[in-house]
Amino acid sequence: MLSAALALVGAVIYGSADFLGGLAARRLRSIVVTAAAALSGLVALALVQPLVGGVWTAADVGWGVLAGIVGVVAIALLYACLAIGPMSILSPLTAVVSAIAPMLWGLLVKGDALAPIGYAGLAVALVAVVLVGFIPGEKIVRPNPRGLAMAVGAGLAIGAFLIIVDQTSADSGLVPLVTGRATSSVVTMAVVGILSLMAMRRGASARSVLAVAGPPLGAMPSGHADLEHAAEPGGMTMTARRAWTLAAVCGIADAAANALLLIALRIGDLAVVSALTALYPAGTILLAAIVLRERVAAIQWVGLGLAVTAGGMLAVA
């Protein structure tokens, strides 16, 4: 029961981080937001890790580094597939694949066993993922093979991240997350550095790669990239300082969600945690409704209700 609760709370926090990152990406480039979030998350985890404790072993550090690399790949594929669209199809597809891959790993490879109500709960959770992630109102367009391949690849990479984190030892504390976030920071900062060098070779300033030039591209992990274009409450203008602050808070929230995920995996089943974690778009939707007063479609409310139902079913499995 505790594992399911932590996974659900973590999913909501993941969605909240997506919301904050999406707002920051109205003013800063997506890769810059990702890099800033990685750094702030690293600082937060590094400060908390000594309090939590944990044994530093080569194996756990290695798993952490691999998780960081896979995480960057997941984000890159996700941004690319959402840019191609249609988001109303590719976003739920990514979330479902991200749940199914570790579910199958947990059930078939690890040997996780659930009561009958647990398997029913997994099915309800997958339906909830599709309904919650569905973006109503978009013109239905058949996705091209490239977009589908990227969506599946992003889902597999997210699922692989969960599987990798699940391999870490129970006495490692937050060590895998710290090393993973450090790896993500190095990779994303390197990308920003390369873009800066390319800009200078074109005669532009290095700082020109930080801000969005024109309307920002939709690139939110939850698939709700329209939040990047939405007006802030009261029509406020997004300043650079505010964008950097949002990006930093996004990273801290994401780090907190990772910590809850890690705890949930260590006390529960991978299949259950992965199914509930895939409900992360719920956090984005709820914050968009509360803060930006965006309309939540009836089908998404149904998905949110099914998510709560699935969580209860899995908690007693």
What does this structure look like?
This protein is an all-alpha fold and 317 residues long. Helices cover 72% and strands 0% of the residues. The chain has helices at residues 2-24, 30-52, 58-84, 87-110, 116-133, 145-166, 175-201, 240-267, 270-277, 281-291, 298-315. Helix 3 packs antiparallel against helix 6. The longest helix has 28 residues, at 240-267. The radius of gyration is 19 Å and the shape is globular. The N and C termini lie close together (8 Å). 55% of the residues are buried. Residues 214-236 have low confidence and may be disordered.
What string, H for helix and E for strand, traces the elements in order?
HHHHHHHHHHH
The pLDDT mean sits at 83
Query: How does the major sheet shape up?
Result: none
Number of helical runs? 11
SS-based class = mainly alpha
Number of strands: 0
Global shape:
globular
Structure summarized in a few sentences:
The protein is an all-alpha fold.
Topology:
Elements: H1 2-24, H2 30-52, H3 58-84, H4 87-110, H5 116-133, H6 145-166, H7 175-201, H8 240-267, H9 270-277, H10 281-291, H11 298-315
Helix pairs in contact: 1-8, 1-9, 1-10, 1-11, 2-7, 2-8, 3-4, 3-6, 3-7, 4-5, 4-6, 4-9, 5-9, 5-11
